[in-house]
Amino acid sequence: MARRYLYYVAASLDGFIAGPDDALDWLASVERPGEDYGYARFYEGVDAVVMGRRTAEVSQGFGDWPYPGKPCVVLASRRPEGLPDAVECVADLSGLEERLDAVGAQNVWVVGGGRLAAALADAGRLDTLIVSLIPVALGSGVPLLPLAGAPLALELEKTETFASGLVQLAYKVGRTG
């Protein structure tokens, strides 16, 4: 089975995954007791987690490391301070592939970082985009998918709506022309 990169992320309606200064407080607007929007099921189905340096640094502010029980690889030219010892760091996409091969990862969650997801998409490696649209407009912040290459063709596979106003969209990723 070929490796699949899955970008599972929350975004504002105007396309930001974090506000200015990496603010995430706006996500609280859809928090509901007992509702995880399919997160537990998704997390159970992934073999490894990958992220960029900036996302790794932000993740450290959550208290306990938020990705337990999964191999985790950070794409960074330098290792962020304070990462758990089990978290691996690599400098480029080829190093990322080597590490994921070493742990036998097939379904890989691309966490947070729009730049890493865009780099994977630009390299033709991003397979699935699952975006939970939060009913808020931020005006600025960290963009969802800042592509440098050709536009992506997205084929809608699933739509789910929730009482909080969150809408979750799942797309198969392709390339145009």
Automatic annotation (TrEMBL):
It holds the Pfam family RibD_C. Residues 9-167 form the Bacterial bifunctional deaminase-reductase C-terminal domain. GO terms for biological process: riboflavin biosynthetic process. Transmembrane segments: none annotated. InterPro entries: DHFR-like_dom_sf (IPR024072), RibDG_C (IPR002734), Riboflavin_Biosynth_HTPR (IPR050765). GO terms for molecular function: 5-amino-6-(5-phosphoribosylamino)uracil reductase activity. PANTHER family: 2,5-DIAMINO-6-RIBOSYLAMINO-4(3H)-PYRIMIDINONE 5'-PHOSPHATE REDUCTASE (PTHR38011:SF11), DIHYDROFOLATE REDUCTASE FAMILY PROTEIN (AFU_ORTHOLOGUE AFUA_8G06820) (PTHR38011). This is Dihydrofolate reductase. It comes from Crenobacter cavernae. The lineage of its organism: Bacteria, Pseudomonadati, Pseudomonadota, Betaproteobacteria, Neisseriales.
